[in-house]
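Researcher: Re-running this chain for the archive, since the previous output was lost when a drive failed. Same request as before.
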Amino acid sequence: MVLEPTAGAGFDADRLQRIDRHFARYVDEGLLPGWQIVLTRRGEVVHHSRYGHRDVEAGKPVEPDTLWRIFSMTKPVTSVAAMILFEEGAFDLTDPISRWLPEFAEPRVYVKGSAVNPVTEPATEPIRVWHLLTHTSGLTYGFHHAHPVDAIYRQAGFEWGTPPGMDLAAVSEAWARLPLVFQPGSEWNYSVSTDVLGRLVEAVSGKPLDEFFAERIFTPLGMTDTSFGTDDTDRLAALYVPEPGSRKAIRNEAFGRTGVGRPDCFSGGGGLVSTAADYHRFTQFLLRGGELDGVRLLSPRTVAHMASNHLPGDVDLEAYGRPLFAEMPFDGFGFGLGFSVLKDPVKAKTLSSPGEYAWGGAASTAFWVDPAEELTALFFTQLLPSSTHPIRQRLRQLVYQALVE
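Model: Regenerated structure tokens:
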């Protein structure tokens, strides 16, 4: 699919060029290898640009069909998959996940102690489907380095990936044996919840997650380049990390092997490789309320429900979430069923609209959907972690300053 920009749609063409000038400096200063940006309004592409290299060392530029590891931008796809099954009556959002994943029948919760000798107690509330969708399950990530349970995850081999040879069923069973950080539903903590949600999709549908995605989402939406891993290593961008001190982008071959070939574990939380054109179609499907080109996967009511703040008491992440390193601020943002949800632009210090829903990936990719302005924005690069530069905040500023109608 070719993303050809059209003029107008309420944007000032000269102001749009500020976006490219700003992010070109990141590349010129060696802070990013290259990038691709797609901006749409009212279903029309109004800005599509690219700069720099998908592989600096090989001198390969970013192309329109460059493949990007989207990491946690996989999470909204998994959330859509779950809600497709929800719409078919396969489960209620309040159902305990142990009905399909018996390994979670008796979770235990960390109380005190070290990672070597934790003291735990039984969970007073079962992990429910909505807990997975909202990251309120009590699960965590090993890479947080913020809690003894994070260290327990790392000891078990879960930091930036999963141990070799373990499929999604095996890692779900392994996580179920580890303590929860808190009682389910009592706090927000970014976690492997969406990976477990992917395992739930497998258990409920009877299909491996890659097959469910292909049959129920990618093929219907025409997302021909999105998959768990790729053998097309020429189109796949290289992965970079910041050099300590200078923050210059340096190639990391170990992380770069992620996304190459078929993985052992279909990570619903971070395993997909995609293109700008494909993810553009996914965001248009969301913006149009669950339909694209005559194909409907979800009802408008379901998409609106997903894009609502589901944190108890309608609070924001600052009030309900655990403080973690992250590029996105917690002030003014709630969380829905698979996305962050903007509650208060003034508190969040952003020009975006109330009701915007969004997420990003560990390698500094990002997207948002603004229903009020019928606007979507996509940013792709390959620098890990995403907290290295304030890309998402800068992109919002530059997009909305160019919107004049």
